[in-house]
Structure formats: C-alpha cells, structure tokens
Amino acid sequence: MKQHQKTVMSVQFDEPPCAPTSENILNERTNSLRSLLKERLKKKYQDLDTAYCAPLKLHLFKRADEDVKSEKVLKGLEWPINDFLNAEDVIEYVDLFKPCPITTEDIRTVLMKGTPGIGKTTAVKKFVLDWTEGRTHQDITFVLPFNLTELSLMKPEKCSLLQLLGLFFPELTDVDALQHARVLFVLDDLSKCKLKLNFWYIKSCSDPKKELSLSALLVNLLRGDLFPKAQIWVTSSSQGADIIPSKFLQRVVEIQGLDDVDWEEYVRRLVCDCTVATRAIVHVKSSNALYSQRSLPVFCHVAATVLEELMTNACNMELPLTSSEMYTHYLLIQMRGKAEAKWMKTDAEEILNLGRLAWHTLEKGSLTVFEEDLRKNNVAPSAAAELSQRWTTLFKEEELNKGKVYHFAHQSIQSYLSALYVFVNYKTSKGNVLSCTLAERVKHLFKPAEVTDMYRRAVSKTLRSKEGQFDFFLTFLIGISAGPSYESLSCFLPDSCQRGSSENIVPYILKNIENTTSLNLIHCLDELNVPYPGCQGNVEENLTPSEWSAMAKTLLNSEDPQRTFDIKEYLNPEVAFLRLFPVIKASKVLRTPHLYDDYKGDPDPLISALLSNPSHLKELNLSFSYAVSAKTVECLEKLLVDPECHLEKLVLHNNIRMSETSFKTLAEALCSSNCCVKELDLSSNYSLFDDKGVVRHLSKGLGNPRCPIIVLRLAFCSVDHTGVLALVSALSSNPSHLRELDLSYSRPGLQAFLQFCSLLEDPRFKLETLILVNIDWWKDDTPCGTTTYRRSLTDIISDACKALASALSSSNLRVLDLSINCLEDSSVELLSAGLSHSACKLEILRMARCKITEVGASTLANALRLNPSYIRELDLSYNPVEGTGFDQLNSLVGDPAIKLEKIIVDGLGEKREIEWLRQHEFPLTLDPDTASVNVKVSEGDKEAWHNYNRQQPLPENPERFKPYSLVMCREALAGRHFCQVEWFGRCATIGVAYKDISRKGHFAACSPGYNKKSWAITVSNPFPLSEALHDGVKKRLPNRSPWRVGVYLDWSAGTLSFYDITYEEAGLIHTFYAKFTAPLHLIFSMSAGIRLLPPNPSPVCCHDHDLWDMFRGTKDCKGCNGSKAG
What we know:
Elements: H1 2-10, H2 23-44, E1 58-61, H3 70-76, H4 81-86, E2 90-91, E3 109-114, H5 120-132, E4 142-147, H6 148-153, H7 161-168, H8 175-180, E5 183-188, H9 214-223, E6 231-237, E7 251-255, H10 260-270, H11 274-286, H12 288-291, H13 297-313, H14 323-338, H15 345-364, E8 368-369, H16 371-376, H17 381-390, E9 395-400, E10 403-408, H18 411-425, H19 438-443, H20 451-464, H21 471-482, H22 485-488, H23 502-515, H24 519-527, H25 537-541, H26 545-556, E11 564-566, H27 573-579, H28 581-586, E12 589-591, H29 605-612, E13 619-621, H30 630-641, E14 649-651, H31 660-670, E15 679-681, H32 686-689, H33 694-702, E16 711-713, H34 721-733, E17 740-742, H35 750-760, E18 769-771, H36 787-808, E19 815-817, H37 824-835, E20 844-846, H38 854-866, E21 873-875, H39 884-890, E22 902-904, H40 914-918, E23 926-927, E24 935-937, E25 943-946, E26 966-969, E27 976-984, E28 987-994, H41 1003-1006, E29 1014-1020, E30 1026-1030, E31 1033-1037, E32 1044-1050, E33 1055-1060, E34 1067-1073, E35 1080-1086, E36 1089-1092, H42 1118-1121
Parallel strand pairs: 3-6, 3-7, 4-5, 5-6, 11-12, 12-13, 13-14, 14-15, 15-16, 16-17, 17-18, 18-19, 19-20, 20-21, 21-22
Antiparallel strand pairs: 1-2, 1-7, 8-10, 9-10, 23-26, 24-25, 25-36, 26-35, 27-32, 27-36, 28-29, 28-35, 29-30, 30-31, 32-33, 33-34
Helix pairs in contact: 1-7, 2-5, 10-11, 10-13, 11-13, 13-14, 14-21, 15-18, 18-21, 20-21, 20-23, 21-24, 23-24, 29-30, 30-31, 31-33, 33-34, 34-35, 35-36, 36-37, 37-38, 38-39
Keywords: ATP-binding, Leucine-rich repeat, Nucleotide-binding, Repeat
GO molecular function, one term: ATP binding
Protein name: B30.2/SPRY domain-containing protein
C-alpha cells in the first residue's frame, strides 16, 4: 500500500498553457484522448459476453429515501398517489441521464440500487462497453469507471482529483480537455466502499489540484463541489443506498431483477435445446422455492445449467425442487468437470477451503477477498490464485490497477459454500465455527454441539443481522443439513456429521415467524417442503416499497387468466389498494368489500383504477364499501356508458354512503345502450329501496329490449308492491333477457304477486331462477298477534301458492327457492298440483325452514311420482319431516325411474333437549389478552362489555384483536362441548374460531364468520334479524332474537349447532357441517356485552327490558328484585 501511495503522489499533470487553446485544437486533443480511453476500457471489459447479459429493467423512483421512510409511508401514506404510480415507471437504458420531462431538470447524479448480485456491475460493464464501441451515449466525451473496492485498497495520506485520474487513466493528462468535455464518473458498488463518507462535516473544495483524502475527494465530487458540470453514476446495494443524502441525488433507479417474461427469455438463451428450455421453465414454475428466486440472473444461470444437464444426461435422476438442491447439483456438476474418472478428495478439500473464505467474508458483509482475508485464513496468495483458476464459476480473480483481489461469483454462491463449511465443521469445532467472539466460544465450550443448537444459533444470527447478509446462508444451511441435499453431499461429510430433521427446526422457525417480519424464514420452510400454515399478516404489514413493487410485478405476470384482485386477501386493505395499484388497473375481477376511503387527494385512487383501463374490467364488487362516494358513483356512470367498458358483473351490497340520487343516477347508466352489465346485485340496500322509487327507475331500463341484464338480485331491499308492479311492467315489455331474479325479504303484497305469477305463465318470459326467501305478505296495519292476522295470512299464502302452482305448470322456471316462508303442509299440497304437472320443468326446489312435516314430505313424494322427469334436488332443511312420509320421499333417491338425486335435510336429528345438551356443559372463561381495546372483561372473566367512551390503556399483546368489540375464550374445544351465552345491546355475533385467526388487519380476516377459520351466527334487536356466517358467505335465518344462545360442538362429527335457550327449551337455530382441523375457541363480537352463563342459569324474567339492560335473569332484573346488573 505504501508503494501505491508513492505512485499516486508521483503523478503530475502538465501545466495548462499560458495562451488560450483554440477550439479546433482542443477538439482534436479531446478526440485523441477519447480514442485512447476507449481502447483502454475496451480491453478491460472485452471478456463481457453481451449476448448472455440478462435483460435488466430500471425502475424509476422519484424519492431517494423512500425505503428508509417505508414504515412511515405504510402507516400514514402521506405522499401523493402520483408519486407512487411513478415508482412503477420503467426508464429506458439509453435515457438514464436524460433530463426529467416534467421539470426539465438536468440529471447530475444517478443512484442505481439493487440487491447484491442482481446485475448492477454487469450493467456498468455493458454501459462502458457500449460506449467504447459507439453503440450508446456518444454525447458523453469521457466515461471514467472507478471500482470503489479498489479505491478502498488505496490509502495515501492525500491526493488531488487530477492525480487520482492520472493514476487510473494515464491518457487524461490534459486539464483543458477535461474541463470542457462532458465527463461521466462511474462509482461502482458504494456499499463495498470502506471509506467513511461524511457529507456534513467534510470541508468543501472546488480545486481539482488540491490534495485531499480519498473520502474528501469522493464527498466533494458527489456534492458537486469538484467538477460541478460532471455527471456521476453510483451503484449500491439497497442496504447501502442511504449513504448519499437525497438532496445530492437527482435520480434514483432500481434494478428489480427479471420479470416473468425476461427470465423465461434468459433461460431460453442459456439452454441450447428449445424443448429442454421449455421443460426447465415449467419445472421452475412447479416449485415455490425455485420460482421465488427467478428474478436473480445468477439463479437463472444455475438453474439452466443444472436442469439442462439433468434433463439431457440423467434421465432417471429426480429434478431439484428447492434452492439448496439446485445449488448442490450445480456444485457437483462443477466438480465432475474437474475429475473425469471420479471426484478427487482434493476437490472436496478445495471446496471446503473456499467455504472457509466464504464464511469469513460473509460475516464481514463482503463478497470480496482481500490480502488481509487470505492471511487470516492461512491461505497463500498463490493458493488463492489456483483456486480462482480451478473454480472459475465460483471464485473469481479481479486484476485491479495496483493489485489483485478475489471475489465470489454471487452472494448466493458465497452463502451456499459458507453453509456447507459451517455444517461440515460445526460438530468438530464444538460449535465455534458460528462463534464470532471469545465470549461466545467460552459460552459454548462445554455444551454439546448438537444440530438443533446449530439451527437456533443460525436463526438468531440471521434475525440479528440488519443488512440481511445471512438470509441465503440460513436457507442453504437448513436445506443442506435437513433437506434432500444431504445424501448428495456425502463426499464432503465426515462420519461425525449428524443429519438434521424438520422436527428439530420447523417449530422454532414457526415461533420466530410469529414474532418477526422475516420473509426468509418462510423460504426456509420451502426448503423443507413444509407449507407455512399461518397468515402472513406481519410480513405484509412491514413490506418496503421495493417489496410491494416486487409483489405487484409478480401478480401482474401471473398466469391467472381471471386476473382477480380481492382486497379481503390483504390484512391492510388501504395500504394494499395503493401499493398494488398497477395490479388493480390490470385486473379483470376487482373486489373491494369493506374498503374505507380515507384518501382525500385528487384523483381518487378508486376512480383512477376504474377509469384507467375500462376494457379490462369484467367484475366489480364494492359491497359494504365506504369508498363508494358521490364521486365514485359519478365515475361508475361514466364507466358504464363508456363504449370501451366491458363490465359484466356489478355488486353493490349495503353501500351506506350511496344516496338515493346516486342510485337513480346509477340506474339510468345501467339502462344505457352501451352498458354491458349482465349481472347486477343491489342486495341489502333496504334503506334506499323502501318507497324511494329506485326500482321504478331501474325498471325503465329493464323494459328496454337492448338491456343486457340477465341476473338481478334485490334481496333484502324491501321491494314493495309498487316496485314489483314496476318490474312486472318492465319485464312484460322485455321478457326474453332476464334469467335470474332474487326478491328475498321483499313485501310485494298479494295483488302484485298474482300479477307476477301471471307473467311467469307467459311463454315469452325466460326466467329460470326465482328466489323468494322470507317474503313478508302482510302490509296492512292489523296487529300481528291477533287471530284475524293468522287467518288472513294463511289465506294470503294459500292464494299466492295457488297462483305459483299454476305458473309452475307452464313456466320456464328451473330453480325455485321458497325458504323461510310459513308454508306448512297445506301450502305444500297446493304447490304439488303444479309440481306434478307434466309441463313443470323445475329441477331444484328449496323449502328450508317452512314448517313442513312428514305429511308435506309424503305429498311431495306423490307429486314426484306423477312427474318424475325433472326435479333432481330438494332442500327441506330445518323442517320436522321425520316419519313415514319422509321415508317415502327418501326412497325415491336412487330410483332409476325418478330423476331425484339429492335431498338436503340439514338439522335433521340435531334437535335435542336442553337437559341432554347440559350433560356436555364445559366451563369457559374469557381471555382478557384477546379483548379489543374497547372491550372490558370482568374480574371473573365471565362477562365482557363494550365501552364507547374510552379506550382502556392495555399492554401490547400479539393475542389482542385490533378491530373493535372482539374477545375470545381461553379454553380450546375438541370434543363434545356445550356452553350457554347471554347477550344484550343492538346485536352480537357468537361463534367459534381456530386459535390462529388473524388478530389485526382487514375486518374480514379477524371477524367471526367472515373467514375460513371461523363459524358464527348473528342476532339483533329490535329488528330480529339472524344470519349464519362462514368464509364471508351469509345465510339468512328465520327472524328471531334469542337473548340466550346455546352452542353445541361435536368436533369429531364435524357439527356445530346453535340453539335458542332463552326459555328453558332448545330451539335449533342453525347447524354448520365442517371437517375441523384444529381445536376451536368460542369468539364474540358485540355492540354492548355478553356473558358466559353457569350450567343452570336463573330463568329469563317476564318483564320488558331496555335493549341496553345488562342481562335478563330474574336474579339480575330490577323488576324482579329491585336490582340491576352492573
């Protein structure tokens, strides 16, 4: 190094001439110097085979510090959406230094960042080679590439910039030529630079002849104090990119690796045989562990080498499915190339020597092996040179201007060799191979070096690393020691090497995944072919903008033909909506239920997504969405009338922010000639349809022969007789389009329904599916409890059934759902007249919860015998049909003369006495650690209530539910168990869930019944509405409001039943049938409160109670004993 110093200090430049140099002479000298420089650089980089360079795309970022501020961005999303959208822009290679088209600002300093080995240095070499050969960037006079690793080797006390240029580029001895030329300094791999670059404390210097330290030279050059007109290109790893303050950067680009098109092209370029290349691509796609690495050019090279060899020459060998297997085969292929007959023992020894060097440099966070590293590992320089010559694909020698250094081909190769070395030597070194300090060595001196301990220490070391340099290492260490690669590496492994097992490491990995945000731990499970069972919510929450961008790129390049984006799959829907915006714009199916519109900027992101590419969108679901504002409705109107819009399905369930005017506007748009919507679902918008005339507006379009709607769902919209008459009028004018109509929970009135049945008899009316669940036939003011009401209701239903039976005998109906209607056996007899008619084409009939007994079942059996050719499915769930009549009906299934294939009788046999249920009583307690911050749990852990006024200060706990009003029980249930629950308030949700149900994120991920991990029912008052919920699918139940609910679980049988136990009887509410895979816990969501009841609770009193009275047992009732629960 002293010799380097003397050389630097001895470089002198010619003094500039006293007389001004003419422009022509200056140009000639500049061109001459340029030619000399090009020749020098061409010789230096001539070994680069541009034909095999991986295609790399540069993604433009408007902010230099966004990865540093990622946490703030994810939480606050304070920066405009336009900035985010521009983060996805791809800048062309030739436009790297072109001014910004918006600001026209000159680009002086460009930072290119990317993960190690992604191709930054290759991009620099290609840039320089293209410049020397006249292909690109000929407007730049001098390109001056510096390797910052080499600069780190030089340690002169002081050096001027001109002296430094003279040392590396002796041709450039003319100061005038430099000062008048366009110069580009290329500083490659800032993250490897060992010089301390302090931008705030180093003094400014603008004199290129003044001698400074190398650190000061670089800082002044980057700040623009030296050569302010020169341009600078800096490359760095993503972790080291924040060394340069953002104020000194005009452009930041990132190499994100190969996308799904590029990596396939790259593999085809590397593999000679097209058929083999195609097979290799398909194989990589078949393995999650391999497919996740496809963006790395070096992995593509390794995979292409291995798969081409195995598919061509080793037909019987199993193809690798994990990264460690792939790199193991790659290493063995290199070894076979060195020994024709058999592998020499020295080969294995040399590989382990490389592994020792790899581990030493990996711990330092460097790919480069310096002379000092060779000395510390007792490797002679001649031996290092020999290793680089023998193992050129693993270990490379780099000739610098003033010496040699060595480096590993890629961080993944360095990590693989390190993992092999550590595993082989762990037991013989008594674990010291993983010890960095003397204290660690002493700590493990007397401990047995077990493989389990190795895993724990390696995971801990990886998680402590802020730079992430041990991520590959941990993956390979687990794959080599406990995966399929173990057998293939027998030539390296001594007898003392103990093979690991997944049982030793998987529980520890799963435990750490719950407590950290490391994506790499999930990759470790992939190496063991162990799927990750839990939700990756913590990982998603802490993704950086670069990782979100990579996720978006993967989704965009996926092979899903539907291109579905469902916001329920993400724990932070608002963040995912903005971060995955390019995916949303390209999606054919867009589902954003429960999306809150907290964005106040302009343009609204939802509107931008809808209008950006209308030809893509086929389905749009905005159910329960707070994002459907007046602006959004206006946007929907524009979308629906756009001739380029091909939207076929629109779902707008329960959009509470939509006004009456908005619905009318939307209805008009749906009726336009350009509208392509075939399926329209406006269910659960009862507050707008109730006497507001919305159906009448909609009917105007339905009557148009050009209206494309074939499916119309208006369930729970309280469509009254005027709305039904408007539909009848419209469908009479246009009877040939509509195929499915859902009027559940409507109140049509008898006269309007009779007219509708007349329409059904019209042969031109092509309706095939009619859903009439829980129809309210009564619309007069007669008190509901009188005998007059009961007699009149029976007559109304009888008249309605007669008309419907007549329609069945001549209509095109294929599916009819009459569930939750008080039909009884008399109405079944009336309907059977139509069912038995030979012209009836009905195939599916649903009459669940219709109070049908065995008499009605016998009547249906007789009807099917008279008309056996059509009905194939019959649903009589929750009807007391047991008896000989049902046996007659059931005997028709399997009869070759009758089409009936299936009878559904859910709930049959689930009716039980309260005394029998209480034999399986199981004591439960609420878990305060799971309670939301606005839920207070009593001291005995038996009661919980909602506190509206304050959020109680509670310690952070990973078990706590982040959404409001939730609490779970401690005890796990996995047998036959019964428990009793009492609730109060407006509504409550009572259910069971697996322990690992999500605790934070999207509403649907945490709430009982809205995901695959829970089953529940909802109850409410004063409107007695009940629903059964599982995986977000709602099933309406008969209107009832049991203040006390019994929950009976038969885990092994796969049944979960809910009972109304308010009045000492067990009335079956609903039964779920499922194959449970883990113990279940009781879970509650409440508007006011819940209580776990004792085995024999006091009876519910007869007094009227306010909704907010806390519980209703006689012991708690103020009317019964003058006290009130509190």
